[in-house]
Amino acid sequence: MKAPNAILNIKVAKKFKKIHLAVIALAVLTVALTLGLYLKSKPAQKPQVAAATAGEVLELKEILGPDQTIRLLATRKLVERVGVEEALEILKNSGLPYTGEGHLAVHQVGFHAYEVYGKDAVLHCKDYFLSACYHGAIIEAASAEGTQVIKEMTDRCRHFAPTFFQCVHAAGHSINAIWNYDLPNALKTCDQLYEAATGFPDTLTSCHNGAFMENLFGVHDWGTENSPKKDWLSEDPYFPCNAMSVKYQKGCWLNQAARIYQMHNSDLVITAQLCEAIGNRQYTAWCIDNLSRQIHPLTESNINKVWQLCSQIGQHNLTTCVMINAVSYYSVGDRPLGIDVCNTLDPTWRSQCLVPIINYLLSDNIAKNQKTDLCRRIIGNDQIACLERLKSI
């Protein structure tokens, strides 16, 4: 396997393209956690930092400015000055978007975490900014030590299922970058690392998913070329999925709507039509799942927009799309809004929508009183069920 040319660090980060990232969702119909790309999300709340106010955090002006290269450098300065945990808290409340350039900036926190803590870096990360710190730490570890360290790093994330999937997804990104975008070999490396993994369903798919996403967007520009290789992209809206064996179809189609959406000038209707025309119902379902996650950041935390935009991809996909958006909100840290979106569904669908959210809530890395408040936000009998389950933990 071709080794990386240099450690992925701040110098390489300067090469990152100004692309937008769509939100990661814990999909209702699939458990693979994926990060769709190039769409903007809502800004976070205004700064409410305990350790330092916005006025005292000198780097914030550059972090919140328009230049991505300056943002990356300023984020690195911040984490080197205050440490991983405090930097994450400052950034979380800074107003920096959770996705897109904000996600890439927080990779710098992960890079620094690995330099300071080595393989234990993931134990110092949090799930802010779509788990960008985990991504950065694993990418940096792989660049320094090769793929042999990746599984050891991701195994440290097993304490919380969503975090574990994000770590494995990040591994897929880094593996494809290490292989210089030789996608088949990247997928085989995922197989070698995770095919025998037990305990979490779809672990292998999460790695495949990260590799396919890296193929599509070339986020990390690992090699020395001016741009990533594009051998596994074409003008065929179904490529590379239609060139892959059955084993890789799920990981591929859970990204392919983003490619179709990109090719057709962000047209939701055309993208949905092409998903519907694949000719395989399961592949179509995965494609629509991915399209629903492309919709999430467009909703701008407005529940009416969730329904409005989801209705554009067909009435028969409407409820599924709304549920995926609900779980997406919860997974990126807007837990109350995720529940509120579920609450807009009729009782039967509401219960289905809340199943993954309640499961994640019970194992979430938040205080028990916060979990209680979230359970109480649920309407109907599901609130009682949530509170009862909470008593047993």
Protein architecture, described:
This protein is an all-alpha fold and 393 residues long. The protein folds into 2 domains: 10-237, no CATH class; 316-393, no CATH class. The protein is built from 19 helices and 2 strands. A two-stranded antiparallel ribbon has the order 1-2.
What topology does this entry show?
Layout: H1 10-13, E1 21-26, E2 33-37, H2 60-63, H3 68-82, H4 84-92, H5 100-117, H6 128-145, H7 150-155, H8 161-178, H9 183-194, H10 203-217, H11 249-263, H12 268-276, H13 281-295, H14 303-311, H15 315-331, H16 335-343, H17 347-362, H18 368-377, H19 381-391
Antiparallel strand pairs: 1-2
Quick gist of this model?
The chain is an all-alpha fold and 393 residues long.
List keywords for this structure.
two-stranded antiparallel sheet, 393 residues, mainly alpha, 19 helices, disordered N terminus
**How far is the first residue's CA from the last residue's CA?**
45 Å
- Treating each run of at least 4 consecutive H or I residues as one helix, how many helices? 19
Please provide the count of β strands. 2
Give the low-pLDDT segments: 1-54
Which value, in Å, is the CA radius of gyration?
Answer: 20 Å
Q: Which strand order does the major sheet show? A: 1-2
Query: What class, by secondary structure content?
Result: mainly alpha
The percentage helix is 55-70%
Number of domains: 2
Strand content bin: under 5%
- Report mean pLDDT, rounded to a whole number: 83
Global outline:
globular
Order of helices and strands: HEEHHHHHHHHHHHHHHHHHH
> Main sheet, how many strands, which sense, barrel?
2 strands, antiparallel
